[in-house]
Amino acid sequence: MYTACSAFLEALVEAGVSHVFVNWGSDPPSLIEAIAEARAKGVVMPRVITCPNEMAALSAAHGFYQASGVAQAVIVHVECGTQSLGGAVHNAAKGRIPVLIFAGASPFTQEGELPGSRNEFIQWIQDVHDQRGLVRGYMRYDYELRKGAEYPADCAPGVAVCQQ
């Protein structure tokens, strides 16, 4: 099935991302599913490097850029993962190192309005008012995509929601 997560992975490849440095949390099941499906079909996608800590993930992406000159991506989980980027965000910003940072978020629906509505206790306590605000001062650009339907129409026809 072609989902918003499939479109996300395609967009990374189109942007020249060959590696994603990740610290998985409670929010990426649909992304992991899209990665598994892409691998099973032999679809070109970035190599996933699982990192034990978000700061290590961003530091690895930082070093990859310094060695190759090609910006890579980091994927972390919700607010605690975003906070854990800490000093590495400072280092990348001050070193003018380009990196794409993506963080999960708790589902924003609660009553089953869309696939992937909240259904786990952690999804309420890891929700913060302005998660992007935790790192905004170090970013050139920030955006929140809440549902697959927010992708541009020409990006991926028939996109499904990229949540749990």
Largest sheet: 4 strands, parallel
Order of helices and strands: HEHEHEHHEH
Number of strands: 4
Strand content: 5-15%
- Separate helix tally: 6
Mean pLDDT: 81
Read across the widest sheet, the strand sequence of neighbours is 2-1-3-4
Q: Predict the CATH topology.
A: Rossmann fold
CATH superfamily: Thiamin diphosphate (ThDP)-binding fold, Pyr/PP domains
Low-pLDDT segments:
153-164
Task: Categorize the overall geometry.
Answer: globular
CATH architecture annotation name: 3-Layer(aba) Sandwich
Question: CATH top level?
Answer: Alpha Beta
**Total number of domains:** 1
Note the gap between the termini: 15 Å
Q: Can you walk through the features of this model?
A:
This protein has 164 residues and is α/β, with parallel strands linked by helices. Helices cover 35% and strands 10% of the residues. The chain has one domain (4-150): Thiamin diphosphate (ThDP)-binding fold, Pyr/PP domains (Rossmann fold, 3-Layer(aba) Sandwich), CATH 3.40.50. The protein has helices at residues 4-14, 29-41, 54-68, 78-83, 86-94, 122-125; strands at 19-22, 47-50, 73-76, 100-103. β1, α2 and β2 form a beta-alpha-beta unit. The longest helix has 15 residues, at 54-68. The radius of gyration is 15 Å and the shape is globular.
